[in-house]
Specification:
Layout (H helix, E strand, L loop, with lengths): L3 E9 L5 H17 L3 E17 L2 E13 L1 H13 L3 E8 L2 H11 L16
């Protein structure tokens, strides 16, 4: 069975302690690997302000998983998200070849370069 690449973003409730958040993330990591998935990249954005309140909360812990796995893994993962009261929102998308290439370049720092402001020569 061919593995397809996915990206999953979850927002956890801000009332969690660091240990509770780490345990929740470890559980999802384990769920992915136990169901024949392979984590390609993982990013923790930490506590971030939300664009709009969710459940009367204005901040949340953001965490992103980029993984490869069979198609049925996504439904198992999203079922676990729905059952977990700590998860306020989640989104899982399938990555095409262009998105995979973009993510690889982003991880290598291709987009971190800041351009210096151009100065005009005085005439």
């Amino acid at each position: 069975m061919e593995k397809k690449q996915y990206e999953s973003v979850i927002i956890l409730t801000p009332v969690l302690s660091e240990k509770q958040m780490a345990d929740a993330i470890a559980g999802y990591r384990q769920l992915i690997t136990e169901n024949d998935g392979e984590i390609v990249h993982e990013e923790n954005w930490g506590l971030t302000k939300l664009a709009y309140p969710i459940q009367k909360k204005v901040t949340g812990f953001y965490h992103i998983f980029e993984f490869a796995g069979p198609a049925d893994l996504v439904s198992k993962l999203e079922l676990a998200y729905r059952r977990d009261e700590q998860v306020m929102r989640y989104l899982t998308i399938s990555l095409n070849k262009h998105a995979v290439k973009y993510n690889e370049r982003r991880r290598q720092g291709a987009f971190d370069k800041k351009e210096e402001p151009k100065t005009e020569a005085a005439s």
